[in-house]
Amino acid sequence: MTFFLQLLFAGVALGCIYALIGLGFSIIFKASGVINFAQGELLLVGAYLISAGMFEWHLPFFAALLLAIVVTVAIGVIFERLVLQRMIGKPVFSILMITIGLDVLLRTGVQLGFGADIQPAGSPFSLTQGIDAGGIHFGAADLWTIIITAALCAALYGFFRYTKYGLAMRATALDQEAALALGIDIRTVNALAWGIAALVATLGGFFLAIKKIEFDITLGNTALLAFPAIILGGLDSIPGAVIGGILIGLAEVVIGGYDSHFPLIFGSGIHEIAPYLIMIAVLLVRPYGLFGTRKVERL
Amino acid sequence: MLQLQDVAVTYHNVVPAVQGVSLEVPDKQIVALLGANGAGKSTILRAISGLLDFHHASLARGTITFDGERLNHLNATQIIRRGIAQVLEGRRLFADLTVDENLRAGAIAHGDAKAERESYERVMDLFPVLRDRRNAPAGYLSGGEQQMLAIGRGLMSNPKLLLLDEPSLGLAPLMVQKIRDIIAHINAEGTAVLLVEQNAQMALSIAHHGYVLETGKVVLDQPAAQLLQDESVRKFYLGLHEGGDHAAPGRGQLRRVERRWKA
């Protein structure tokens, strides 16, 4: 039982990382209908900057974190302003290709700047820190992942619910022309979406890196694992991204924990494909995801 | 107040929709803009409110001035700040947002909390039914309530000129009457209205002046009372005709109009 509870805890923590990555995808998708393929690389830039800030430039942790957030948010907003702004009204497919371009640009940029060597993750906690309670070890990094994700979700909820800009973003997501007719500035809405997406990507990258202790250029690929999470939750649903992320994290860790119990049937790598199996199963029943908008269309 | 001079609009730089329209909305008046589908009514509203870009259309020539200021190159946000609000055809509410949130969204461009509260109270006094349903998602309202909310949302920026695109669309006759009275009331409080309608009877019954648009051009430009008496308007917009199904022989002009309609 304690083993199962331990797995649950670890699963939720991993799920929170997926949730952070998924949030970035769905906020941009809601605002502009575009899947941002560079989301994983924003996360990579964030993780590298924190690591380099601490170990190369010898900044205190929070300064390094702040630096990483400022730089990634600036990349997101500037990219939106300089490039995507000119693409408003153009086919979504073209915009999608451009985000793949940004992805390549950021990845090679990171490689040029920091080399291809393995980097130690910048972290304020040591590996062994944590609380033991009831036979379960609550690692500091995992605990903070959960706490920060929960706090961020609450902050985003408040932002969307109670602030003027949050309302503008929700209105624009529902009907762009109606929002425009009310004088809502869609450029500001898009810039905000990219800024928030970059912020959550940096936090996701930070927690992912400390989970792995050390990392390299492939860290961005983890964004692919957030993909089943957002599809599962419904691409255009922000709560869906969070819940989908946690479900996928739980599935991966819990199934991984019991891998050895069914090696003959599935082999020991079943936890790696479990997220995708769950995604396919959900899509068969609910093609728009668990919380996505159900689209009624005549064909 | 609002003047359009020789305005021409093309979509995708090639498709002409409006070809040289001049019209005027005087201070505190209701002006009706009538015409069949595709005559260019909505395009004219888009040109005024700065929504042409969104539809890949642009002003090919002409000027639009509001209180003496050229609007030609202003964007939608700038135009609404100068006091022009548009209620789109088909209401276009944010269905998942509550009534209150829809109204708050209407005041975003202005960004003055005190003005927003005043506008909010004004809208609620105008539409008491909305007060009872303020926390309900807009999508759950009845058609008439939705139209009221759409108009209320337009009023949240406290406009000097309100552009209404087919407010009677899809409403029951009693509700059409109600919307008509509301428009007259809003106008009586000092807001000018440019009213695009298919329901000519309703529009002309409250308008001071009317324009009839055909394939992108103004074909009639008269005081509303006179338009109501105009034979072609009576026949083709009001469905009233005296003396049988066919126009009396010898009325060349009327027959021309008729041919245009039957084409």
Explain how this protein is built:
- The complex is a heterodimer of chains A (299) and B (263).
- Chain A has 299 residues and is mostly helical.
- In chain A, 71% of the residues lie in helices and 4% in strands.
- Chain A has twelve helices and four strands; from the N terminus they run H-H-H-H-E-E-E-H-H-H-H-E-H-H-H-H.
- In chain A, the strands form two sheets. Chain A has a two-stranded antiparallel sheet with strand order 1-4. In chain A, strands 2-3 form a two-stranded antiparallel ribbon.
- In chain A, strand 2 (130-133) and strand 3 (136-139) form a beta hairpin.
- In chain A, helix 1 packs parallel to helix 5.
- With 263 residues, chain B is α/β, with parallel strands linked by helices.
- In chain B, 38% of the residues lie in helices and 25% in strands.
- Chain B has eleven helices and ten strands.
- A six-stranded mixed sheet of chain B has the order 6-7-8-3-9-10, sandwiched between helices.
- In chain B, a hairpin with a 2-residue loop joins strand 4 (57-66) and strand 5.
- Chain B is globular.
- Mean pLDDT of chain B is 88; it is low at 244-251.
- The chains are: A mainly alpha (299), B alpha/beta (263).
- At the A-B interface, helix 6 and helix 7 of A face helix 2, strand 6 and helix 3 of B.
Features:
heterodimer; A: 299 residues; mainly alpha; two-stranded antiparallel sheet; two-stranded antiparallel ribbon; 12 helices; 4 strands; globular; B: alpha/beta
Quick rundown:
The complex is a heterodimer of chains A (299) and B (263). By secondary structure, chain A is mainly alpha-helical.
Helix content of chain A: over 70%
Question: Per DSSP, what share of the residues of chain A sits in E-state strands of 2 or more residues?
Answer: under 5%
Radius of gyration of chain A: 19 Å
Globally, the shape of chain A reads globular
- The quaternary state of the protein chains shown equals heterodimer
What integer is the average pLDDT of chain A? Answer: 88
Instruction: State the separation between the terminal residues of chain A, measured CA to CA.
Output: 51 Å
Structural class of chain B: alpha/beta
Write out the strand line-up for the largest beta sheet of chain B, numbering strands in chain order.
6-7-8-3-9-10
What characterizes the major β-sheet of chain B?
Answer: 6 strands, mixed
What is the straight-line distance between the termini of chain B? Answer: 37 Å
Shape of chain B: globular
Report the mean per-residue pLDDT of chain B as an integer: 88
Give the tally of β-strands of chain B. Answer: 10
Largest sheet composition of chain A: 2 strands, antiparallel
User: Helix tally of chain B?
Assistant: 11
| SSE arrangement of chain B, N to C | EEEHEEHEHHHHEHEHEEHHH
| Class derived from helix and strand content of chain A | mainly alpha
